[in-house]
Amino acid sequence: MLFNIDSVMWLFVILSLWGNIQIIAKKPTGFLIWIITNISWVLYDLYKGIYSQAALFSIYTFFAAWGYIEWKSPSTIESIRNYLKKVFT
User: Domain boundaries in the chain?
Assistant: First the structure.
């Protein structure tokens, strides 16, 4: 077999780190990368029987999705700030 499951997981390690770099660079694609990698970690942990870590990465997946949604949609405060700028300029 060319690849085993453990060697494939190294790809997800690299992708996870790349997601961090994207977030540092203030790019919301980092959240999408995290969603993909976190789901892969959940599946891997379930396969290995590491249920507590699978639960942790499930929560991380939720947070990554939440972060992406928040980042892509303007916040209420930002909307108010933009409105006030338009009104007073």
Answer: 9-88
